[in-house]
Amino acid sequence: MAKFGKWLGGGLGWAFGGPIGAILGFAVGSAIDSVVSVDGNVVVNGSHGRNRPNDFSLGLLVLIAAVMKADGKVVKSELDYVKQFFLKQFGSTHTQELLITLRDILQKDIPVQEVCLQIKTYTLYPARLQLIHLLFGVAAIDGQVHASELNIIQQIAANLGIKTNDFASIKAMFFKEVDGDYKILEIDKNVADEEVKKAYRRMAVKYHPDKVSHLGNEFQHSAKEKFQKVQEAYENIKKQRGLN
Predict the structure, then answer these.
(1) Does 178 lie in the same domain as 122?
(2) Best CA proximity match to 119, nearest among 62, 44, 46
(3) Which of 57, 82, 237, 240 is the most exposed place for a label (fewest CB within 10 A)?
(4) Are 133 and 190 in the same domain?
(5) What's the pTM?
(6) pLDDT at 151
């Protein structure tokens, strides 16, 4: 593939990539240069499809930058977390490109609302839930979720169309809250035992890793962590109530 990607990214980023393309600019073009063209289709890690600036991973990268910048500082533990995440997903070569892109994004103002609307247009709801889970993971990696980080994740969730109960459920996976297990299952503490079982079945379906299998192995691995939190919450409630 000819090395014209950086010119495409810089010159046509807004036209073809929306606000995400505009933010990434030449950095996106450099990433495009690393892919292979097969019969006119762009392939990244063997996957055909819409792998341009509206690609899930690039949208995630932009929102990760927004969260990292939210508390006014970028710490090494956050960078290490992001690096390990992309190493598992894309391998070392592409990870280096993404980290360079992240460095550039961190220097820019990020129009969060516009970026979220673009992501919302191109991704299914389960993938957007997974994105919120991943952003909480980045925010929490240094031992606490700063108020400014929580605020930006709330803004992102709202702009992505995430339902209030779903946001509260994912948030409870990262915060030690009163009745947190019930919040994870999206139910009130006073519901009947049968409602607890129904809620678990409902959440198990909603957060099943297969819902995001199309995003790649590492995204699915992260989804398994979220799925495990649902299972743990259910087991805790069963133990509290003496349920079989």
Answers:
(1) no
(2) 62
(3) 240
(4) no
(5) 0.74
(6) 92
